[in-house]
Amino acid sequence: MSTTMIGPGSTVTLHFSIKLEDGQLVDSNFDGKPATFTVGDGNLLEGFEKALFGLFEGSEQSLRILPEHGFGQHNPSNIQVVPRKSFDDMALEEGLMISFADAQGGELPGVIASFDNDKVRVDFNHPLAGKSLQFDVKILSVSNS
Q1: Which of 6, 74, 117, 145 has the greatest number of beta carbons closer than 10 A?
Q2: CA distance 6 to 144
């Protein structure tokens, strides 16, 4: 077992799970292939990376990630009202995720928050925005090269 601690620039291989505060599982790779990333490469949110600092190979931890260190706070300005006619004859329902084009031509997911015959409220916040998360990790290897 290595005593190399996770810090800036570390390459880490781990199993993880992310759960909501009520225990609902959001994502996990414990039953599959472990994830490998380098701290700072953008593959993991900075708040999740920093929560791992000081852990080492063999560590198993349950970490609480607050919204401001995870997917951010829910931002009411990220809810937009779009004319219903913009959706043609699409069957809408609350909670439906739809892909929109952003200003740069990229893909931007939005969730139908509510709708009527005239307008549709679309929430462009990340679905985990505003939520505290439980981040369970098992560190398989750490290298600082």
Answers
A1: 6
A2: 8
pTM: 0.80
Domain extents in the chain: 11-72+131-143, 76-123
Quote the radius of gyration of the chain (alpha carbons, Å).
19
- CA–CA separation, 111 vs 96, rounded Å? 6
Beta pairing, strands 35-38 & 11-20: antiparallel
Segment 43-73, tens digit of pLDDT: 899 999 999 999 999 999 999 999 999 999 9
What is the fold, at CATH topology level, of the domain defined by 76-123? Thrombin, subunit H (2.40.10)
Q: Considering the domain 11-72+131-143 in this protein, what is its CATH number?
A: 3.10.50.40
